Amino acid sequence: MASxxxxxxxxxxxxxxxxxxxxxxDEAFRKKPFLGGISQIPVSGKVFDGDELTNLxxxxxxxxxxxxxxxxxxxxxxxxxxxxxxxxxxNSGSSANLLAVSALKSERLGDRALVDGxxxxxxxxxxxxxVNPIVQNRLVPVFIDCELGTYDxxxxxxxxxxxxxxxxxxxxxxxxxxxxxxxxMKIAKENNLFVIEDSCDAVxxxxxxxxxxxxxxLSTASFYPAHHVTMGEGGCVLAKTASMRKIVESLRDWxxxxxxxxxxxxxxxxxxxxxxxxxxxxxxHKYTYSHIGYNLKLTDMQAAVGxxxxxxxxxxxxxxxxxxxxxxxxxxxxxxxxxMPGSTPKSEPSWFGFLLTVRPGAxxxxxxxxxxxxxxxxxxxxxxxxxxxxQPAYQKIExxxxxxxxxTEIISNNAFWIGVFPGLTNExxxxxxxxxxxxxxxxx
Length: 444
Description:
The chain is an alpha/beta fold. It has 13 helices and 14 strands. The longest helix has 27 residues, at 2-28.
């Protein structure tokens, strides 16, 4: 009876804390009125309410500081959203890319496993950590160009990049716009290549009615505050097969062979009944390592935020698309001076940003319009690393370039993007349009 009373008191106190947390959100995170030219309009940011804060506190009260119940719930639901069987959380989208590429070198893949010096096709214009795992795994990135407007690789460029050493394609769906998955998967099938979809900027996008991330052998997602749902930090690797899931989980969890969830023992029922490597028979399976791995797990508190965010994802995606369309409708009048962004055929993007490329011959430069926007408190970003081969970190890497990188150079010099994230209101979007219009009209 005393124990029952203790549990009831504990549960009541927890509920009281959670109720107060919801009240705290209402007081601490009141929305401020928008004042054009004074209020900052960021390119991205977290959008949340009392649900996320309550989940975060609820998780903290468990004091289960590593992966736990919220992580398991998120993995199950996110796999459904992404149209795959398996989702494996990790501590960032960059780590997700590292795990995915590293998995392609696992000896468990047999003759298909990549080896040092194998080539991987990727875009020259993009985010560093799409490419970094290729270099870190002693593979050779083969850089190709992209189209302006969609910022997608052409089938011709991909096909031309293939050599006898090509073993994989690793590309991102740029700013939420799906790349040509028909072409990629056809080329991959014809040449027996692995495909990794970097979907970190594209959660919720579809191609031919299917979620991006459900086509390749592996795909990745990020939950940084800029992305479609956030955990603060966090990422995920998605897989279609149990065998690939086991490889990724091993690499994420120190390289161990054991697949027990955190805090559990003897899931296989044979914990002391294995003989692997040259270890003695019966060596503890929890301390048997089949890969050179890492510890890239995330905390359950992060996952708790993600569980609340995931329920809002459909609304977030709809708002991103609405904001993108409002910007496009408002700025199409200046198509003479900008390459306007457009979706790839057969796709429905989940837009991450609104990318503009200043056309050669325009009466202004990217530098000038970016300075104008920033001076009016409108945040801008360039297309991540631009031409990565021009970045200091990539000057001496082993690589190959296939064809011209003409458009990549144009992107590096002329492209920038502004936000479409769900925290932006119609009033903010209209101010962005008016500010661009004011600038352009002053130059013509």
